[in-house]
Amino acid sequence: MLRRRILLLILTLTLAVTGVVLKDKIVFYYATYLKEKKRHRLTNTEREQRRIDRIINDHSGNVFGIDISHYQRREDIDWKTLNIANGAIDIRFVVLRATMGNRAADKHFDEFWEKAATNDLIRGAYHFYRPDEDPVMQANSYLLRVRLSAGDLRPVLDVEKLPRKKTRKQFIEDLKVWLRIVEDAYGAKPILYTYYHFYKDFLREDFADYPLWLANYNDVPAPSPADEWLMWQFTENGIVDGIGTKVDLNVINGGDRVLNRLRME
Question: Hey, is 77 helix, strand or coil?
Fold first, then answer.
């Protein structure tokens, strides 16, 4: 009798979860293929849009977000109406470029940071790492500019380039310095953002224990076939209702459960 009740409970929970996933798929399909399409002045090639739609469909039950910087003009963003898939999926988080290199700061960061909070978006802030500059100065510049609170995303380090004036060994050691300083300051291991091939070729061996945000714009089912990625930047050609320019689109691998792991406590 007890065994039968346990099996019934498991079946009920399974159907409930399946129902949520199926509902998300139906809503996405209706908005994408049946609902009257909103008109955008922005367009992609048919191939690129088909790839974007497939990834959104595959992850329609997960959490989507954008990352922006001063390349997006203030007047191009209506913070109250950010969604994708013809209104089927809301944008839930935004990651903003805060600082670059030793001293540079993004001119829109402070304003965008406040706008995100005002419009109930989960916020994150990233530092664009310049490999030939000083890692201590870069970390301190980020800490001086960014004040993370409970519920914000962990600090993010954006690494995309190799140094021209330093060895690969020094490059790795410098990255560890930045990450250690910022982790000590916030009490949270930073998220590491980079491109898939750059991570595979230069970073994987030394930074496998950091939360991984990968960029991969190829027609693939996942940004990496082997790594445990938590965020995927799957296009730089995202068309978002409420933004007048194309933006980077991202998806969390695991929905709210993983999203909450990436937030400050």
Answer: strand
